[in-house]
Amino acid sequence: MTEHYSGRLYIVAAPSGGGKTSLVRKLVSDLEDIVVSVSHTTRKMRPGEKNTVDYFFVDEPTFMNMVDAGDFVEHADVFNHFYGTSSSQILDRLRAGIDVVLDIDWQGAAQIRHAFHDAVSIFIVPPSLDTLKERLIKRQQDDETIIRERMQRACDELSHYPEFDYLIVNDDFDKAAEELKSIVISNRLRMLVQTKRHEKLLSFLLSSTYN
Q1: What superfamily would CATH give domain 9-207?
Q2: Domain ranges of the chain
Q3: Average pLDDT of the chain to the nearest whole number
Q4: Does pTM top 0.90 for this prediction?
């Protein structure tokens, strides 16, 4: 998409258990004018989740109708459940000058980069596969078979890290959270962004004389 937006799109991806969801939640709680795009999914709601907050939970026919209608900028089949990102979830916020974070897998990230060429992509990796497995077990959301499948998939997912702009190792959560936040802050301070944001100030400074 070639339209200019005053907000910026951030893609955060990681293998299951990589900690991207917790890091993204920390990011949007620490900074202003940044939100997480809420995806649609056909999987069942997990304990503690809320519809329209964590996901828009829909049945498969509804999801496929949205696919046919072109409502998604990206969608994928992940462990026999469909996930998709609504175009309006992104565009409305970017046009309003709000940064948007997408918490998605590498497949969705590739589709998003194709549609939004100036999106900033960040890949989160665990310090080891053993740590990743421990995190999956502690979540208590999957049985042993699913955990084994997630670990097998993680090895493939990790191979896609070179496709991203930034890489964060989530060994120490607080450190990783600060690194993620620094990426957003640094992009907000880019010359093109700052020039447009402070156009009046810069014009005043350049037209002023000092005695």
Answers
A1: P-loop containing nucleotide triphosphate hydrolases (3.40.50.300)
A2: 9-207
A3: 90
A4: no
